[in-house]
Amino acid sequence: MPKANCINVYLDKDRAFSEHGIMVKLFIRLALLCVVLSGCSYSVYSNAYPHLKKVAVRAFENRSADYDLGDKLLNGLSQEFANDGRLKLVTQQPDCTLEGSINSFEENIYSYDAANNVQDYQLRLVCSVTFTDLINNQVIWENKALQVTCNYAVSEGSTAQFNSKEEATDELISLLFKAIIQNTLETW
Fold it and tell me: What's the CA gap between 183 and 128, in Å, rounded?
């Protein structure tokens, strides 16, 4: 075999080996990406009571004038627990319960514009809340006057984040859930 042909054969083998190495690296990277995306995840959620796995959210007694607020609160808190995922939402044989009452629900004028027209309203929800560990038969947290507020806009110049009473009510329920979780599962 002439010398020039031998060099071309070796160059072709080096190029093939190099391309093979690139394919192996690509395959390894794709495999690692699949492993990471297939469920290896890190959660920043903590649970101060690891023995609690299942929660029952009881209907809150509604002492407010808004007759359907109790149902909204029950549905909203149930959805928040389902989305959070730390405790499984159940109706039978729970490890813990969340119960309480709606003490008041008020809608008040919060601000006016330059022409003295109402610009924002503030919703204020006051609840009595009890979170009970049924396994150890103890109240983990209780607050008889838990208050959350949220503003909503009724005019163009408002800076309120929400544009309707319904949106603000949903946010109140979300804020109530966060307060409950921070004082129960996330206690240090």
Answer: 14
